[in-house]
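Quick check before the chapter quiz. The format below is the same one you will see on the exam, so make sure you can read both the input and the output lines.
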Amino acid sequence: MPGKNLHTLRIEKLVPGGLGLGRLGDGIIVLVRYVLPGEEVLVQETGRKKDYISAILKQVLSPSPDRIETPCPIYGLCGGCDLQHAGPEAQIHLKKAILTDNLQRAAGNIFSSPAVLIEDPLPAPEQFGYRQRIRLQVDGKGNYGFYRPGSYIVEPVVRCLLAREELNTALQQLHASHSFRRLLPYCNAFELLFNPEKKDTLLLLHFLRKPRSADRLSAKMLADDTCGISTILLQVQGRGLYDPLAQAYPTSAPILSYLMAVEESKAELRLTWEAGGFCQVNLEQNSNLVKIVQEMTASGPHNRILDLYCGYGNFSLPVATLDSEVLGIDGQNAAIRSAHRNAMLNGIHNCRFAKQEVPAAVNALIAAGRTFETIILDPPRQGASAIVSQLPKLDADQIIYISCNPATLARDLASLIPAGYQMSRLVPVDMFPQTHHLESVTLLKRSFF
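Here is the expected output.
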């Protein structure tokens, strides 16, 4: 018989965040990690809110047929993965169900037409070893790893199954290095960044104080002791990037790059970004994501295209190879610097970029009477609530919305549809296997009455 803080329940579904939802006999909702729909589980209550109870899994009493043995020895302790206990096919179906549930609850009118369907998710080329960037936290005792679920306690990690093998090789060398251990007390995090084109790795240490001569000596010894780590940099709090080997603050960040094949236009683009700047962690699946956006863009009028939150030109430049006139806008200096560089490197002259906060840029374009046939929208996780009500004023025939958050996507679509747009396609893209995270691409077409 379960004790006071123990509950037995059946899991109904997964909800945003990858949490399983079950109910007690009185109807109170319980949320718990590492479970699957249909399972009967024993959970321990950890906290109560107004609308739900938080709990941790104690025992799976009746497992789902989709449950598998997890390959990672610290799964459940590390907060990085939360779906390793489900097989690959089950994972993408669960993610699609989370997305569908969000849309039905937040914007049910999207599904008013039976012809409107969410497509099956596009599986990732690799289930493991796909990340070209990892960030590990460092605690005050010099331990490093990933935070445990829902906490700031560091779970030590010496190998991550999601990281590329080159990053794990570098991580194992760092683990064995006394020089690295001498630098750790002055860090709160560090990143390992794989450079696909050069096939080497960059180490970025987030440093808490001004570097001293002993730090520079340790960095030099670390460089001598390791292979495959081509660059060691300190991101010094309040001071910027510091190169301990050159003993100088560089005027610009190192550049990473990779080659992207663009099937629609039979082109190959060299895309670059600054170390520390944003780039998708799964480059192979990113190429598939770009292909979907290109297909959607090519399917309708596309003479003038506006790319909001354009980053380093991940969508702008491939779309521009189809002879469209593209304007990319982003508020990040590093992103726009990279976008300009990428346009120049690839000889693309029909794509312009502007550094401006996106809401202000949208208002300025409306005030100037600018219009576009297609708008590409790739906002951060918090979505685009600041601009979705304004987008119809740009008179676009179609909007392509790339989202990494089903909840904010549902909210924003609920605003766009009453403004005269209908959902034509929605393609989930499994960018992050073994986690609940899901990318998606939605094609909205303007309704004509």
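If your answer matched, good. The radius of gyration is 24 Å.
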